[in-house]
Amino acid sequence: MRRRTRSLAPLFAIACGMLVGAPRLSAQERQPAPISRVVCSPLPAAGLCWSDNAVAPVGQFRIESESDVYAAFALDAIRPGCADVAARRFEDRLRASLEFYSGPAESAIRVQDPRSGKMVHPFQSWLAGAMVTHVFYAAWEFRRAGIAVDDELLRAVETLYAEIPVPQDPGCGLRSLPGVNSCMDDFTLTASGAAWIAAYEASEGRVDDPSASPIVRRARALVSEALSPMSERGGGPCLLFLETLQDGSRRARCDGDPTTAKLIGADHNRENPGYGLGLMTGIASACAGLFFAGEPCAFTESEAFVSRELFRHAQEKSLPDGSAFEGPGPRGCLDFTNPDGP
Q1: CA angle 62, 68, 70 (to 5 degrees)
Q2: What distance in Å separates the CA atoms of residue 47 and residue 87, rounded to the nearest whole number?
Q3: Which of 19, 139, 200, 275 is deepest in the core (most CB within 10 A)?
Q4: Greatest Cα pair distance in the chain
């Protein structure tokens, strides 16, 4: 059965290849140059702005809609005639969210994390990195346009996000087998949020030495974790091999020998390229943020290997006409709960 994932971050479409191995930049050299953007949504009509309809009740938190709201502000930051009004809307939205969920921890309004079940602040919830990416990318774009936004609001978000657990999903990694639930999305999106915080901080002149900056180092460490093989409580892609049991049946495992196992994206209890190569869009976003923070993603040999193998895996499972991941057959995706099935 075909499985598709809905992108939580439309601004993630930034080419990673341009950033890997790029030279470290000085503060002056980090002055933003125009970057291309791929937007998978129709442009607003003439005279209208992306954020005109970017409305979602603050008290009815959903990570998808909240991420989209902040993405709209970022898009308006580069849309002629929209930047000033979007900046004010951006501040109003942040202020309303922070006030609504403020107060002592024991009495404050919280949201239930869909993975851990705990009551948490929205900026500490599962995959909140998507929302934080858009918050700080928007702030970075406003500053780039010469429009001031309330720095205290952004520092408050930084403080909250610094306490997000990683991974947020307590059931991901090798412990999720015999089904499979990867931690790669947790690490990737958390890295992206941290990287764009670093980019914003650098634009404010608060990152003197990127290599020594705690937020830069945190973001880079999360990128590395996302591009490492699945482990008991972390890592990313699956090192797949099929173990033959005593009764002759087979069991899918993700702790194979790197020299012989097949590296694949896996999630939702099956082989899943959307959670392999698909999540490289989030890695690209993190690397873009780190680039503008002055610390480009120079991939290690291991990280480059994982990236190439995820690309190879997605190619093997895809067809030019879009009929990807259909089974049975060589392009069908393995069902971890029934590895001997069709």
Answers
A1: 105
A2: 17
A3: 139
A4: 69
Q: Could you tell me which of 203, 195, 182 has the C-alpha nearest to residue 9?
A: 195
Question: For residue 8, is pLDDT > 50?
Answer: no
- Residue 238 CA to residue 182 CA, distance in Å, equals 8
Give the model confidence (pLDDT) of 308-331 as tens digits.
999 999 988 887 776 666 555 566
Q: Which SS3 state, helix, strand or coil, does residue 62 take? A: coil
- What does 179-235 look like in DSSP terms, one character per residue? S-B-SHHHHHHHHHHHHHHHHHHHHTT--S-GGG-HHHHHHHHHHHHHTS---SS--
SS3 content of the chain, % helix, strand, coil (to 5): 45, 10, 50
Q: What is the pLDDT of residues 84-99, one digit of tens each?
A: 999 999 999 999 999 9
Answer whether 0.85 is exceeded by the pTM. yes
CA distances (Å), origin 182, targets 30, 167, 275, 306: 35, 10, 8, 15
Whether the predicted pLDDT of 302 surpasses 50: yes
Other CB atoms within 10 Å distance of the CB of residue 255: 17
Cβ–Cβ < 8 Å for 267, 187 = no
